[in-house]
């Protein structure tokens, strides 16, 4: 905390630089950020959280959305299972937390959500005036890298594009796999195939960082609009 305290004045003095803060414990942002920033978020401070699977999406997206910030982002690397950001159970207990607007689940890319009313139990819609502003996706690197399904990345890219949220496909990692339809005439990501097989891919370049190796749908490296 003392080291971080030395960083805040530097950030204040470098308004022309964008500072990206990334944590596996985004719930700490409200504790460690200067109070003045919580009241008036600094335009050059982006707060982020790492998300590897559905469980971390539930807990960390909730904390990140509860953090006053000019821009919120997710680093979904290494991604180890499929995650649907359009329907995230932000908190399981209590089911209607005040900080995130009262919905049991939410599309964190738009801020929209739906769930039973805590008063009546009737299904109601609710929305936030903020959401996740940027998503980074990537697979694990190293000799012990866990499998990274390119289909997971494809789904996340599609979710972000549908919501108008910039997405950055960083790398496929060292253990990419692809669920291919048995029908050889089918396209790589064609939905509805009743039979698929997993195909392991050996990247030509380290960490699978060369977008030219991957399907066109994954050749996307977008950045959020800088707010000044």
Mean pLDDT: 86
Low-pLDDT stretches: 93-101
The number of helical runs is 5
Using only C-alpha atoms, the radius of gyration works out to 19 Å
Principal-axes geometry comes out as globular
- Strand % is 15-25%
Spell the H/E element sequence.
Answer: HEHHEHEEEEEEEHEEE
CA distance, first residue to last residue: 28 Å
Helix content: 10-25%
Strand order of the largest sheet: 1-2-3-8-10
- Major sheet: size, sense and barrel closure? 5 strands, parallel
Output the structural class: alpha/beta
The domain count comes to 1
Secondary structure tally: strands = 12
How is the topology of this model organized?
Blueprint: H1 2-13, E1 19-23, H2 29-32, H3 35-39, E2 45-50, H4 54-65, E3 71-76, E4 88-89, E5 105-106, E6 112-116, E7 123-127, E8 134-138, E9 148-149, H5 150-163, E10 167-171, E11 176-181, E12 196-200
Task: Give a structural overview.
The protein has 228 residues and is an alpha/beta fold. The chain has one domain. The protein has five helices and twelve strands. It has a five-stranded parallel sheet, with helices on one face. Strands 4-5-6-7 form a four-stranded antiparallel sheet. It has a three-stranded mixed sheet with strand order 9-11-12. Strand 2 (45-50), helix 4 (54-65) and strand 3 form a beta-alpha-beta unit. The radius of gyration is 19 Å and the shape is globular. 32% of the residues are buried. Mean pLDDT is 86; it is low at 93-101.
């Amino acid at each position: 905390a003392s080291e971080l305290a030395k960083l805040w004045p530097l950030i204040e003095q470098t308004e022309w630089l964008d500072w990206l803060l990334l944590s596996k414990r985004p719930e700490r942002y409200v504790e460690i950020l200067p109070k003045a920033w919580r009241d008036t978020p600094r335009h050059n401070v982006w707060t982020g959280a790492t998300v590897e699977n559905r469980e971390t999406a539930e807990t960390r997206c909730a904390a990140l959305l509860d953090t006053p910030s000019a821009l919120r982002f997710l680093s979904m690397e290494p991604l180890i299972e499929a995650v649907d950001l359009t329907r995230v159970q932000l908190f399981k207990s209590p089911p209607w937390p005040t900080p995130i607007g009262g919905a049991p689940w939410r599309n964190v890319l738009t801020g929209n959500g739906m769930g039973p009313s805590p008063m009546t139990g009737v299904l109601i819609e609710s929305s936030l005036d903020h959401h996740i502003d940027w998503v980074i996706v990537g697979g694990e690197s190293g000799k012990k890298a866990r499998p990274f399904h390119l289909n997971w990345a494809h789904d996340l890219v599609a979710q972000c594009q549908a919501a108008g949220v910039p997405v950055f496909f960083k790398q496929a990692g060292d253990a990419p796999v692809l669920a291919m339809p048995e029908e050889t005439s089918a396209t790589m990501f064609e939905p509805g195939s009743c039979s698929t097989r997993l195909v392991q891919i050996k990247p030509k370049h380290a960490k699978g960082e060369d977008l030219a190796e991957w399907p066109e749908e994954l050749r996307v490296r977008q950045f959020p609009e800088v707010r000044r």
